[in-house]
Recover the amino acids of this structure.
């Protein structure tokens, strides 16, 4: 294998500054939205005492699990010794940190008291998975930065495998922790199941890789760097495997719930009668996020075309946001069942929701805050690849895996 | 000269006497007003686990259409001081304003029998809200009362996700009016605290149970779950009761008869 040469992103200055300006505008609007919600209070959002976590959490959780998933590409190279993936490692680490920061900012800015962040960082209750996650998230950022150093600095190369392995294990813990935020909640019918943790892990694999591939395609196209067909094939096949894993774990999640009579109602809600949530599940989570991209990836012609593969990646991301919306918002909108065998015919004052599906319509500031988080992640990535050598000069097959290209020509 | 001195001394005595009187008048209210509070000063003593406060709700006595407990809680804890933000939808506001206790009406799916009951924080022995709170703001006192420390609540709402009883409320709006005994602030979570301010000043009662008795229903009995001779334990001994979501094994401090 040739020595891999990394180069800063050589986008023309006008395009580059234009991109930064757009991202800065998205971030500014997100920041203003957060200020607006903070100034007035959460009554200006769609959130209520029934749906307490809304669209900001959808974006935040999506970005956080994608962060750990984006690191997978580096792990495959370092931990599992797949040499072809080695040139992809630096961007993988950068994207992981960037997505995590974007997600965490959204999470923090949606707090009722974001000004008390210092309290959250100094006062811990270690029975809380949230408290564990504060360590898992900050630890992840620190470890990945160390991991990047071992990849970039020759003196650190020897440490790459142990640090990479540690980062890989840490990221598994992180996503398990994020899934467990929901999985350990015993009081809601949709949660209270350990399978949410591995489901979140496989979701992170797919969403992180889809984002990674889109960023890679865009960055490489923009300054004319080649990506070989063998490399493309590897990445898309890996994505297909992760999508299939999501579908499998989703199936098991619902089968488990369907088996117990006590969960019939929540399953009917998700799968048949839940209106928007049912639509998002079937059309968003399963069709757009699962079956369609699988169809593209295994289609004999479409799978050869980079734009179609990029479309498949985009679909995985859209499907992922739909899945997060169903898991986070749909599960809260569904009424908590406190009185089995009874129908709730009155619950407090009219409008105070209990025993029926709670209404929730996201407000614009919530959406804009979520987009702001995405903007932060992309801005960090755009600056990172511009000023430091994160991107390999070429991912042409002959440069990354001469044996593969020899095989393909044979 | 002597006479002059005497009159001067007399004047000084008068002045000192008057000054002492004014000082006494100024200081005395403080002394007298503060002394009883200091004597009743359970507030300075740590709460102990000698008591575990709880409630028994006898749903057969809970009257349809009566909201005495809810109204009493609202005025006791300043919940009636909340005002709908200008321009907010009425029904959405009902789902955003803080509610510590609500009347719930249930119908048995098989028999059609209708049951009324008040639902509030169940003051679990193993409260999920306390387990999940990242900062420990959601906590359980030694006497079993589950409440929120508003100084360390960061408004993450994880406790609201975890509570099986929808007992908690998030303060969605700017708070303009509140009571000293029930501080409240935008961006924090709160819920029923069994009128802890009453208990801490030696008054063994809650506003809801008191109001229910005043209405003559006696559907709510407040007391000490650890006192076998107390009214709560006596009532629990006589009536079969259960916990809502008993399957979760939370050992709630609030028990229900008739469901």
């Amino acid at each position: 294998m040739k020595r891999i040469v990394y180069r800063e992103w050589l986008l023309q200055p006008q395009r580059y500054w234009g991109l930064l300006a757009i991202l800065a505008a998205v971030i500014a609007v997100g920041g203003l939205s957060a200020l607006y919600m903070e100034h007035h209070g959460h009554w200006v959002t769609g959130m209520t005492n029934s749906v307490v976590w809304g669209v900001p959490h959808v974006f935040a959780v999506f970005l956080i699990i994608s962060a750990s998933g984006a690191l997978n590409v580096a792990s495959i190279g370092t931990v599992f010794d797949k040499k072809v993936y080695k040139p992809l490692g630096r961007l993988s680490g950068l994207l992981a940190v960037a997505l995590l920061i974007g997600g965490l900012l959204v999470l923090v800015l949606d707090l009722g008291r974001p000004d008390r962040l210092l309290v959250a960082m100094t006062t811990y209750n270690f029975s809380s998975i949230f408290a564990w996650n504060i360590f898992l998230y900050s630890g992840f950022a620190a470890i990945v930065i160390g991991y990047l150093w071992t990849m970039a600095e020759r003196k650190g190369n020897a440490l790459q495998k142990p640090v990479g392995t540690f980062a890989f294990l840490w990221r598994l813990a992180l996503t398990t922790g994020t899934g467990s935020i929901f999985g350990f909640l015993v009081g809601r019918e949709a949660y209270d199941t350990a399978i949410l943790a591995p489901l979140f892990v496989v979701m992170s694999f797919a969403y992180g890789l889809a984002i990674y591939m889109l960023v890679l395609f865009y960055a490489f196209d923009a300054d004319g760097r080649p990506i070989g067909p063998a490399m493309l094939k590897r990445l898309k096949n890996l994505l297909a495997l992760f999508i299939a894993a999501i579908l499998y774990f989703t199936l098991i999640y619902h089968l488990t719930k369907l088996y117990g009579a006590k969960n019939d109602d929540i399953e009917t809600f998700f799968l048949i009668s839940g209106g928007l949530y049912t639509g998002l599940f079937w059309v968003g989570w399963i069709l757009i996020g699962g079956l369609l991209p699988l169809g593209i990836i295994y289609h004999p012609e479409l799978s050869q075309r980079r734009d179609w593969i990029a479309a498949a990646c985009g679909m995985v991301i859209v499907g992922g946001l739909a899945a997060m919306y169903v898991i986070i918002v749909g599960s809260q909108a569904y009424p908590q069942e406190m009185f089995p065998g009874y129908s709730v015919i009155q619950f407090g004052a009219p409008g105070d929701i209990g025993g029926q599906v709670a209404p929730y319509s996201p407000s614009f500031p919530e959406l804009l805050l979520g987009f702001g988080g995405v903007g932060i992640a992309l801005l960090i990535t755009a600056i990172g690849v511009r000023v430091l050598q994160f991107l390999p000069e070429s991912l042409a097959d002959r440069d990354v895996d001469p044996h593969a290209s020899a095989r393909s020509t044979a | 000269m002597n006479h002059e001195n005497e009159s001067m001394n007399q004047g000084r005595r008068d002045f000192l006497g008057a000054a002492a009187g004014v000082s006494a008048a100024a200081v005395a209210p403080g002394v007298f007003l503060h002394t009883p509070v200091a004597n009743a000063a359970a507030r300075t003593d740590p709460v102990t686990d000698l008591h575990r406060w709880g409630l028994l709700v006898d749903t057969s006595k809970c009257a349809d259409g009566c909201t005495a407990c809810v109204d009493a809680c609202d005025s006791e804890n300043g919940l009636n001081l909340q005002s709908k933000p200008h321009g907010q939808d009425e029904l959405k506001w009902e789902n955003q304003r803080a509610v510590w206790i609500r009347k719930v009406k249930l119908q048995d799916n098989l028999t059609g029998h209708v049951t009324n009951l008040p639902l509030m924080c169940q003051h679990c022995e193993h409260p999920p809200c306390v387990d999940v709170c990242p900062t420990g703001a959601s906590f359980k006192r030694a006497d079993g009362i589950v409440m929120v420390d508003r100084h360390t609540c960061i408004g993450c709402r994880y406790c609201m996700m975890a509570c099986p009883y929808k007992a908690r409320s998030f303060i969605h709006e700017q708070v303009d009016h509140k009571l000293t005994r029930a501080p409240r602030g935008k961006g924090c979570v709160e819920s029923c605290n069994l009128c802890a301010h009453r208990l801490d000043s030696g008054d063994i009662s809650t506003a809801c149970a008191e109001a229910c008795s005043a209405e003559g229903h006696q559907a709510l009995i407040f007391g000490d779950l650890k006192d076998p001779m107390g009214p709560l334990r006596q009532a629990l001994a006589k009536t079969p009761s259960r916990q809502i979501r008993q399957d979760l094994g939370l050992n709630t401090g609030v028990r229900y008869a008739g469901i």
